[in-house]
Amino acid sequence: EITGIAEKIAKIIIRFIGVKRAILSIVLMGAILTYSGVSLFVAVFAIYPFAAQLFREADIPKRLIPATIAFSAFTFSMDSLPGSPQIQNVIPTTFFKTDIYAAPTLGIIGALFIFICGMLYLERCRKKAAAKGEGYFGKGGATSEMAATTSAQLVQNPIASSDVIPISYWIAFLPLVLVGVMNKVFTEFIPVWYTKGFDFASIGLKEYGTIDMGQVVGIWSVEMALLIGILSAILLNFQAVKEHFQSITSIGVSGSILAAMNTAAEYGFGAVIAALPGFVMIQNYLTGTFSNPLISGAVMTNILCGLTGSGSGGMSITLGLMAEKYIEAAANFDIPLDVLHRVIAMAAGGMDTLPHNGAVITLLAVTGLTHREAYKEIFGITIIKTLAVFFVVGVYMMFSIV
């Protein structure tokens, strides 16, 4: 955001799509940012100023902004599209020894299903509001802006449709492209470089022994690719980073601590729930009812993600409890682990966005809205995302697409 990359990407999207299609513009912006590795929490802060400006220009109710941002950042780009570096797509790699490109065709089909259904739903919400005469500030039109003021002024210097887009704007996509390309490169070559695993003794850490690369290649490749993306973003506008280094470091540290503590608290809560005798009964019931690991995994992950309010926390608990059983069942049903990876990753982004979810609370706080005002539309997106994983399971069972 400080380097101006987010603003340039937003302006290019608006240049081609137009202000009138504000919902589509914001959805694409959020998807691009999150798919390139920007944290969901960070994406909310980066997207909102542009969303507020575009929705105001198009006179779309402000209460639809949270659902639009949630759809853009918390759904198909987070865990459905193959290659997404978000944690929900990385965690399964450590359990199944897969990579973040697992089941690419199935993932793309799921992403298209979510995108089409989500856009139809948001457009329906917009049209219903317009039919009632509801504008950006509601029906009265005199409500004051509730969110904190932001420094972004997107439409003051828009790129006119007749203008040639400057090269500097296209270069803004370089860090995003580098993350995707280097992610794939490291995924392919790290196992080749360390065929016998990585020996920590070679860097003076004997106590850690030798690690099997199959368990960490997904995480290591993402982290190294993101590091390269960060360095390239800094180099593109080093002066801006230098001038604001202290402030952005403070914001970055506080933001990361908030996200980490939220996730840790949710994970801890989920772990306590998972240890209760009642949950063991539910676990045994689901395992006995759904012998197919895809259905069992999707249901179990959704339940735990809903209880914890965290996709990563709920999925980690699910796989910690059930990964070995799922692997064994997948072998019995002749289901590739790549498919199991994709289904459970997508399930993690289903019922996690219930009202107590940390990202939802942050999103509403940033936009200055309440659950009463804006959560209804967010829940609509939650339902679509939850149904999508079972749609993907059905597609695989009918056509064996991977």
From TrEMBL:
InterPro entries: Glcn_transporter. One of its GO terms (cellular component) is plasma membrane. Keywords: Membrane, Transmembrane, Transmembrane helix. One of its GO terms (molecular function) is gluconate transmembrane transporter activity. The keyword Membrane applies. The chain crosses the membrane at residues 23-51, 101-122, 167-186, 217-238, 267-286, 298-323, 378-399. PANTHER family: BLL7963 PROTEIN, GNT FAMILY GLUCONATE TRANSPORTER. This is GntP family permease.
